[in-house]
Fold this protein.
Amino acid sequence: MRAKQLIFIDDSGDAGIKAHSSSHLVMAAVVFNDDLVAEEAALAMRKFRRQLGWTDDHEYKFHNTKKDYIKQVLRLAAQYDFGVYALVVNKSRFDSLPKRLYNDTISELLRMTPLKNASIKVDGGSGIDYSKRAISYVRKNTSTKAGQIAEIKFADSKENVLVQLADLVASSIYRSTQTGKADHKDYIAILKRRIVEIRQI
């Protein structure tokens, strides 16, 4: 049986331009070109979760987890073979933002990611109707060739530890934009050997 490409996508920041909105929107893809390696990475993350004394449904979240634990799990995950592709949208460069910035950013991320019959899981989704519309929009605007995407669906991060890894990766990249924070370089440095491309917009 051939290896299966698995891709997990999450974002950090938001798509707004209000006073309380984030300065950037980061969309990141964690790309495993071998599904067995993905399973091994997921198992290692689950085992580490138990070592921390957490329940099996405890979620890795960058903003809700002790930063020392974040660094440890990133070091653990980075031992496995995956690639990171990301888009960083600096919202200060725009007078106005597209209405579908979130979906547009996913579409652009997939255009820059080498796809090989990929099974893609995107964090979130607010209901079945929204998910269907968003996936239809992304498929239409990604303009992929036949065979590049096997499936794309929204997934609940609570049920998928590799979607949680995508959260940690996206948030690590977002933190690197916050140059006023003492740890802004720490997390992305751990991921350095896994980063294939981070594109600034």
Q: What stands out?
A: The two ends are 39 Å apart (CA to CA). The mean pLDDT is 90. Residues 130 and 136 are 10 Å apart (CA to CA). The longest strand covers residues 24-32.
